[in-house]
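> forwarded from #structure-qc
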């Protein structure tokens, strides 16, 4: 008997000035439901924005929002990549301007226009000074596992 499961995993890259950070993230229940709805063609919005915040509480699948959101930024690019014969990735980018999302950042989230959280990442402190910009590139890979 043959069976397979579809799974999702994610990563994000945060760049502040000349400092670059790489972290894993968790696709939450809202994200799993979002991808399943997209798979059957339901008319739901595209991923539209990212947010950053101050909470270091670990990510769990049942979370629906950042725990201490500080700033949001619109997704400026959205691409799909075929990486292997069994998986594809979507990659999104957003920029946080000087003055937005400043301080000690510990969490980030990916959202739809109606506020459904797709994914949440919690990571060691990333410091963003008020005069610095910050670029975030988020990748989610989905594929079959035998």
């Amino acid at each position: 008997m043959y069976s397979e499961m579809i799974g999702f995993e994610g990563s994000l890259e945060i760049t502040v000035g000349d400092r670059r950070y790489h972290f894993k993230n968790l696709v939450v229940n809202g994200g799993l439901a979002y991808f399943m709805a997209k798979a059957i063609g339901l008319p739901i919005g595209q991923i539209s924005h990212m947010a950053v915040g101050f909470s270091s509480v670990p990510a769990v699948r049942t979370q629906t929002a950042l725990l201490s959101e500080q700033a949001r930024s619109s997704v400026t690019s959205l691409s799909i990549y075929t990486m292997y014969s069994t998986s594809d990735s979507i990659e999104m980018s957003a920029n946080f301007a000087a003055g937005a999302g400043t301080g000690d950042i510990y969490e980030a989230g990916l959202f739809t226009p109606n506020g459904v959280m797709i994914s949440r990442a919690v990571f060691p402190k990333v410091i963003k000074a008020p005069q610095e910009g910050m670029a975030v590139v988020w990748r989610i890979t989905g594929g079959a596992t035998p």
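QC bot note: The chain has one domain: 5-145. The first strand starts at residue 5 and ends at 16.
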